[in-house]
Design a protein that fits this description.
83 residues, alpha+beta, 3-stranded antiparallel β-sheet
């Protein structure tokens, strides 16, 4: 079984903005933005629709990082950990 350490609060997102290099804030999983009920989609099913091919096979969770300095957002690939 694999888990996303960011989603489960075990680690904090540590990434920098590609535009201005300021620290990014975690804005959740990218699939949470797909619709009203998307936060309730099972994690394995969400990986099938996250827009990244093979994210389920690669055990990756795609997050949105937002920059409070320049207001840009970008997708961050988080490698899930085996437990």
């Amino acid at each position: 079984m694999y888990i996303c350490t960011i989603c489960n609060g075990l680690e904090r997102l540590e990434a920098t903005c590609k535009n201005c290099e300021a620290p990014l804030e975690d804005a959740g999983k990218v699939v949470d933005y797909y619709g009203d009920y998307s936060p309730y989609i099972e994690a394995n099913d969400a990986q099938l629709i996250d827009g990244v091919s093979d994210s389920s096979k690669q055990h990756q969770c795609i997050h949105v990082g937002t920059c409070s300095t320049c207001q840009m957002s970008q997708e961050i690939v988080v490698q899930e950990q085996k437990i």
